């Protein structure tokens, strides 16, 4: 069982504000780190697949960074909008399957 | 639409009953997975199939069996349902296979099956 931890569990953001949250994972035998976005009543959808230490990925106003040596990744949302409200999952792999964190639930208030 | 199809979407079982959750993907993906999602615990892996013809246990396999019927289909069977198996079940697939690939490919998830065991 690979321990993947996300913090905080939930956060509330005012529309227009920026926010970020953390995923920590085992730093040994690193292969890849995934981020997924999960909206209520839908299925999780892939945001990023990250493999290289220091890597930064961006998709619109959402970006992620990766530190494989210390075992953490940050996800950033710039200028939050109500449609950004979702649970964001990170997942770690060192073989053929993903181990998921419990997620950070983001609520953007208008 | 291309994707992962799960059936049924909802099911209520009595303790001791059996049932099979069906999952099919039409993306020619190599690997398929079954997860359960419980409040506060995130997605936990039940079983997975990294390639057609192979299946492996995940984190929480007890009480479940799986069959990779062909490359498209991966079913999950509860032989004797227990209240502890009340959960939302997600099937997922990936182009990644036994030769690796989760460094390049993510999962595509089905819409989930909400199972209640009374």
Indicate the low-confidence ranges of chain B by residue numbers: none
* H/E element sequence of chain B: EEEEEEEEEEE
How is the main sheet of chain A built? 6 strands, mixed
Q: How many alpha or pi helices of chain B?
A: 0
**Structural class of the helices, strands and pairings of chain A?**
mainly beta
Give average pLDDT of chain B, whole number: 93
End-to-end Cα distance of chain A: 39 Å
User: Measured on Cα atoms, how large is the radius of gyration of chain A?
Assistant: 13 Å
Overall pLDDT of chain A: 95
Question: What overall geometry of chain A do the principal axes of the alpha carbons give?
Answer: globular
Percent of residues of chain B in helical segments? under 10%
Helical segment tally of chain A? 0
Characterise the protein shown here.
The complex is a heterodimer of chains A (110) and B (118). By secondary structure, chain A is mainly β. Chain A has strands at residues 5-7, 10-14, 19-24, 32-38, 45-50, 56-59, 62-67, 72-77, 86-93, 99-100, 104-109. In chain A, the strands form 2 sheets. In chain A, strands 2, 4, 5, 9, 10 and 11 form a 6-stranded mixed beta sheet that branches. A 5-stranded antiparallel beta sheet of chain A has the order 1-3-8-7-6, with no helix packed on it. In chain A, β6 and β7 form a beta hairpin. Chain A starts with a strand and ends with a strand. Chain B is built from no helices and 11 strands. The chains are: A mainly beta (110), B mainly beta (118). The A-B interface holds A 1, 4, 31-32, 34, 36, 42-46, 49, 51, 89, 91, 93, 95-103 and B 31, 33, 35, 40-45, 48, 50, 56, 58-59, 90, 96-98, 100, 102-112.
